[in-house]
Amino acid sequence: MSDTKITAGSFKPLKVDNHEEQEKISAPSLTFTQDAIRRLKQNKVAVISLFVLLAIILATFLAPVIAPQSPNTQNVAYANLPPKIGNGHLPGFKGTATVSGVTVDKYQQAGVPKGKSFILGTDYLGRDLLSRILYGTRLSLLIGILATLVDLLIGIPYGIISGWKGGRTDTFMQRIIEIISSIPNLIVVVLMMLILRPGLLSIVLAIGFTGWITMARLIRAQTFQLKEQEFVLAARTLGETPTRIAWKHLIPNLSSTIIIQTMFTIPSAIFFEAFLSFIGIGIPAPSASLGTLLSDGQKAFRFLPYQMWYPAAVLCLIMVAVNLLADGLRDAFDPKS
Amino acid sequence: MTKYLIKRICYLVLTLFIVASVTFFMMKLMPGTPYTNQEKLSADQLRIMNEQYGLNKPILEQYWIYIVGLLHGDFGTSFQFNNQPVLGLIMSRLAPSLQIGAQAMILGSGLGILLGAVAAIRKNTWVDGVATFFSILGISIPNFVLAVLLQFFLAFKLQMFPIALWDGFSSSILPTLALAVAPLANTARFMRTEMVDVLSSDYIELAKAKGNSRWQTVAKHALRNSMIPVVTIIGPMAVNLMTGSLVVENIFSIPGIGEQFVKSIMTNDYPTIMGLTIFYSFLLMVIILVVDILYGIIDPRIRLSEKGAN
Amino acid sequence: MANILEVKNLSIDFKTYAGDVHAIRDVSFELKKGETLAIVGESGSGKSVTVRSIMGLLASNAQVKGGTVKYHGDDLLKKPEKEMNQIRGNEISMIFQDPMTSLDPTMPIGKQVAEPLLIHKAMNKEDAMKRALTVLDLVGIPNAKERMKDYPHQFSGGQRQRIVIAIAIVDYPQVLIADEPTTALDVTVQAQIIDLMKELQRKIETSIIFITHDLGVVAGIADRVAVMYAGKIIEYGLVDEIFYQPKHPYTWGLLNSMPTLDTAGKLEAIPGTPPDLLDPPKGDAFAPRNPYALQIDTEEMPPFFEVSKTHYAATWLLHPDAPQVEPPAAIKTLMAKYDEVAPQKVGQTDGKG
Amino acid sequence: MEKDKPKVLVSVKHLKQYFNPGKKSEVKAIDDISFEIYEGETFGLVGESGSGKSTTGRSIIRLYNPTSGEILFDGQDISKIKNHSRQMKEFRKEIQMIFQDPYASLNPRMKVKDIIAEGLHIHKLVKTEAECDARVNELLDLVGLNKDHATRYPHEFSGGQRQRIGIARALAVKPKFIIADEPISALDVSIQAQVVNLLKDIQAQQNLTYLFIAHDLSMVKYISDRIAVMHNGQIMELASADDIYDRPLHPYTQSLLSAVPQPDPKLERKQRRVAYDASIEANNEGRQLREVAPAHFVYATEAEVPGYQAALAKMTQATTIAQ
Amino acid sequence: ACGSSGSKEASTDTVTFTTSDVISTMDSALNTNVIGAQALTDTMEGLYRYEGKTVKPAIATKVVKPTNNGLTYTIPLRKDAKWSNGKALTASDFVYAWQRVVNPKVGSQYAYIYEGIKNATDITAGKKAVDTLGIEAKDAHTLVITLDKSIPYFSQLMTSSTFFPVYKAAVEKAGKAYGTNSKTLVFNGPYKLSNWNGPDSSWTEVKNTNYWNAKDVKVKNLKYQVVKDASTALNLFQSNKVDRTAISGDTAKQMKNDPDYSTLPKSATFYMQLNQDKNPIFKNAKIRQAISMTINRKELVSQVLGDGSKPIASVTPKDMSFDPTTKKDFTSELSTEGTKNATYNPKEATKLWKEGLAELGQTGKTFDYTMVGDDTDTSKKQSEYLQNTLEKYLPGLKVTLANVPFKTRLTRSDSGDFDMVVSAWSADFPDPITFLDLFVTGGDNNNGHWSNTEYDAQIKASKTTNANNPTARWQNLLKAQDIMNTESGVIPLYQSGVAYLTNANVKGLDYGPSGSYNNVSLYLKK
Ligand SMILES: Nc1ncnc2c1ncn2[C@@H]1O[C@H](COP(=O)(O)OP(=O)(O)OP(=O)(O)O)[C@@H](O)[C@H]1O
Ligand SMILES: Nc1ncnc2c1ncn2[C@@H]1O[C@H](COP(=O)(O)OP(=O)(O)OP(=O)(O)O)[C@@H](O)[C@H]1O
Ligand SMILES: [Mg+2]
Ligand SMILES: [Mg+2]
User: Fold this and answer.
1) Domain D8-322 is of which CATH architecture?
2) What are phi and psi of C301, to 5 degrees?
3) Any transmembrane segments, and where (chain B) (predicted)?
4) Model confidence, pTM
């Protein structure tokens, strides 16, 4: 420690009382959400997933513009054509198929005029698969979103009320949940289908009938914790009504749980619809959903594998993206990380 | 403990009763009758059959008869399989589903726990990345797609396993695999999250401070504690698996209960639907009870608080 | 007196999104056989990080920037994981702050206490359990024999902390590190635990590093005291020196802000808040809150000035050129007491060493 | 204390607060306590963890519905007003609470401004947004915080600052009475003094009455006028702060005091811990809070009173001699 | 034969089939489906049995001609017929079985095909006692059957499982459980079910050594496996795990050129009914004709179904019934005026549609109709195809699809809860009347409520005045079918067929007009 730098003036008392300065917060003011977004941004995988999802959503909602043709236009003469791009030079998109060891040009066989091609091939009624996938994905996403709405509209209030009231009310509400969850989903679906007619509404209602239970359970458990939190007690001592406490204090603090759970609701709804399609009570024809496309594709897999691969790929992509995003969100909303 | 069990069983019975009632009235809401067919039944035949099935009585009385029957273990007879008792029907279809379900459950959750634990311990390394990727992929592939792929590649092309049909253990392997992937992936993810939490807790610190190596710490302290919440998801998962997966049963031509369920729905076979629903609920609640007891075994805090409450 | 443990120029950073947190900045101290060193300082001053580095239990984002931790002459920071496992829980043990969370909720406590023996002493299970029982008796768990099979949640907070202590001493360690072992406890229980630790120290002749932010506790247990502020030790000395001859304005502030049973009038609070260790000030980190700050405090970090052979303080006020300042009145009262106490204190320390 | 007839602001009479009454898990958190708090004073409540301090505070502010007993606030019985009634709303303005945990007591998703203004809006104490801002700034200033802190979120503040935000929130509705439930025990030593000073200043300024709950006895002694010592849901001893510290009569109080660590090695070396033998409470027959000396109450049977009086006399003598 | 890998001895004597569903009952009185009917045909035997397209005596010693104006059949039974338990089979076993079917207490859904046998209808309606049925055991080996009115297709009817005998003691012993597992059953056919339990998804039939004709039964075991998934079936077949399997949809289309591929037309047709009650525009013939003409049946069967189904111009299928005199196929004798309505002609269709609408004063209106169909894959595909083609050529028509489970479809058809419905009918016995009878005014299955008095009159005449005059009756039926065709009262779509993959070693498959195989003739080429 050399004293060289020390001058006489160094030992003058520092009279400015600058501890006020200390109280200034130097870091930029970040809201909780901003903070979460910052953390999310750091997670490259999650960001990529987000963009993939946005791209898919955009593509499906622009389907009327970008789809090569209407998803329901049939041309049975062109049925089951394999994928082909342009003149068919790209491997995997040549428009050929191997029939008993011989490679044949399916397009030629079907008498498709030169220059006309289907990027992802056609289905059993000669409908363009790409267009159907675009529209199908849109419908599947819509189902996911609608199911989420039900989830939000029932699950959250139910969970909050059950958790907030506690005691007998809670026991009663939990019993109801137990009972509902012990009724097989399929029964509900079929009943809805019979009463309401097959279609989007039935599927969404059926998914919604039991779909909100996980959300309600999570919210209830969290509400139990939150309601003992001192800031909630503070609001009570200020005379805030329970409804307003729910809006101002509970829901904002439940938001991460809600977002993450939603992220799981969407894919499970899409999955459930796929399952319904498989057993034949999904979206009615001619509308396509990823589920109907997949179940059709599965049946044709031996000979026309592309009819399963492409919808499966899209479904997997959405699932993977949503799941990775959900993981990212969970981490982002967890201040501990 | 016995007191607790009795209380739980009372709840179980009550819930079953409600489920039975709800399904009963739901079935009555369903349009159509079980014997709608293209064939013509004479009015007299119809009347006699309705009498035989008790369908001519007022709904409330039918309900009463049904509930009383249930109490005697009588689930009624199937419409679809003429005169076949529903209980027998369920039992004969249950075995394959239970076997595959249990195998898938054990395989899936076992491997899932392992995978999740490894991912958590190697958090933020490539191991974690790979494990996460596979578990997400596992959740993302519908099991029917998986079943088709397994059948085509492993059984048809490579002839490693039977293609389908129900004939001994070897024919249960592929369906087990197809079903195991989702629980595997789910448990792995759940386990990872939980394990990461547990690994950052004080008692793990203390375990390390005692001189436990990393793996000793995990084996002795972290694993068990991380399993506690995992057990909760294992319950419903087990029910879903054991009550059969229509899809996988269909693809592998397994005479399982999932397939039967859809069939009875499609044929308006009300007694079978009701029987299956009640049975399903029963299974669900028994599994939840088992899980709760398991829970207590894994987590002494719960065990004791219940003892205390009784 | 031999130094069991010597920490020299230890610097530790944490990597975070916002940049590096300079949590420990050039910390040095030593621990002698059989003595108790108390580390005091407010939250975030780096007490825990310091002792965790001794245990080799730093978080994964920690980076040792420099310095050594010598235990019997070996640098612990350079030891491979395997050898550290041999030392942890065997020669150096640690007690954590929160007795409610530091026991494994799913394992009977007997097993938890016996665990270090099984790891280090190659004992069979039965012997280990016997020894565990002895130790549990020693720390004062009533009915220890029956209660070995019980689980942590069946014990009160004070009892749990005793169990944690039992785990730490079951191997008769040379060094016992206690990170705020009583902060979560009631005063009455706290008093019991402190008495217990003193007694155990006598019995097993261990050296203790005791972390706390409560000066009252320090006064009761410590032989020597290190006061930390913002990742640095700013004053270091025998317990009486720190309490009756404090030199650093921060130590003054600390002593002053605690009401004693006869404090009247306004409390002398230390204004402001501790600095952000992401970007610690260039000079004395305490300067912005220091009413006695000098110009130089904003420019250069003060070095340690020797007050006595055992007493050092890092404040420019001790520089020969610095102006003489009047410590606050309460401190002066304390200082007055020093003379009566000093001889007695020295004698005591000698007796121990 | 100089005032001869202090006005009683809060009067608790035979208050009982049981949790899960009738069930096996019943907890008698408060079992028949009575005391009075005078206007303008600070009433300290000490005791070990689980002794019922928080429960007392929360019962008074009606976070719980008392099992039995009366709570008179300003002469009005508040133990039986209905939740969500107009009376309740009125009452909510009069009493406020400051909480222990500076992290849990502020909603992490709300801005400081909204946290402080919440009470203003509920009780319609401000009419315009501008008026609201002005009042929030005034309050921030009062607790020693900066105006531009209003738009920030709680997690950006240190513990001491958060505690001050909590105080500002309580003060916003201009209460008469504040219950401070361990407001400083989660804070650093150096910060504790800041908050205690602030509380004292505000009390003087606004003529507030405090119920100050803490387990740090030195701080309670410093801030309180009178102190009640709680144990197992009962008040063991109630007297002026000085009496409690200088002339503790009940063995529990004595034990508690002996355990307080003093920041003075010399004293500490001399300090002898007194263990408390709870068995004297075992026979609870006829035990109640009795006045053994003017304004000095001890939880005792009729028969024990003379013994306590004798002890008190001895202590008084000892102190006088010392002086 | 069972597979290249099949080295096990037993397997050489086993033929394995896939089947689409389980047996729901083995009680011949209660069975309603083709799976049960096949199992019954394998294991039981009635008076006659189909061999190829001809009715051959089975338990009867000869195919009997009626006497008494076609009202009495005296049928001699073979004396060597035995039950599988070795007991002799007698005429009273038939009497017991038949009385069971018509007994309303038994609740046979097929009791109606006894119509014409003396008192049958009255007995099912509960008006007469069971023992008044027109069947009588004259002696142990002679059966006398009396009819109310002559049944021209009586012999064909006797091949149907509903007329099989049952072993009385077994029925009485098992009570309600009769037919729910193999233990309750006693057989008299070429095979016996072994170890079959209710809802089993596979079952084995072993050769019945007590069968009177056991020497002609060449295959020891028949194994049936329920396989629902098309690609699983294909995989199993290609790995030689099954010898014969039906394939459908794309699998069928893709396997068309495989040497093991074959198709089998069924005596079943798919047709569309239009709900005239709900939508009066369907009362207009032009509208109906327009709808019929928009459908390209050829494309439908070849491109969409691809499973061996054939276009058809009438609801009565081809290759089922033949002119008693000319021996020509029923469908080949229909007038072209009617069949042209079932020929694809979109231009004409659009024209008729517009004309029809103009006649109704509905020009320019839009019509939003629901087309109900089954929820099988094939049905869904055809619905999609029909929807597209209808909307394309009939301006203003919008079709919504409702592909629902079978029973739901029936319920909706019955209750008129549809605008259009695609239904199917499979012959109960090989005679046009089994189809034509459906669409008389007020007919149970006439869900569209198309009604034509002339049509009704022709059907009635065929049953009454001309019942004993095969030629005149034939003309009645042809007329009726022509009327329906010209009117497009019901719109025929196609005759359903099934595509099969069959192991080349399996020979002698004999599919009879009744919809079951006669597995007596089955053999394996070694
Ligand atoms: N894993 C970590 N990542 C980033 N910063 C850390 C980490 N661990 C500790 N720190 C920082 O290091 C500094 C010292 O922390 P430390 O835990 O040693 O404080 P302490 O003195 O023990 O405080 P307390 O009394 O609250 O326990 C703090 O500023 C803290 O934020
Ligand atoms: N909501 C509740 N339900 C059941 N028991 C409760 C509840 N709240 C408090 N108790 C119990 O009441 C008793 C008194 O608790 P209280 O919180 O008043 O103690 P305290 O003196 O404030 O303790 P601490 O110093 O730990 O805050 C304890 O035994 C506690 O477990
Ligand atoms: Mg610390
Ligand atoms: Mg408290």
Assistant:
1) 3-Layer(aba) Sandwich (3.40)
2) -70, 135
3) 9-27, 100-121, 133-156, 168-185, 230-252, 272-298
4) 0.81
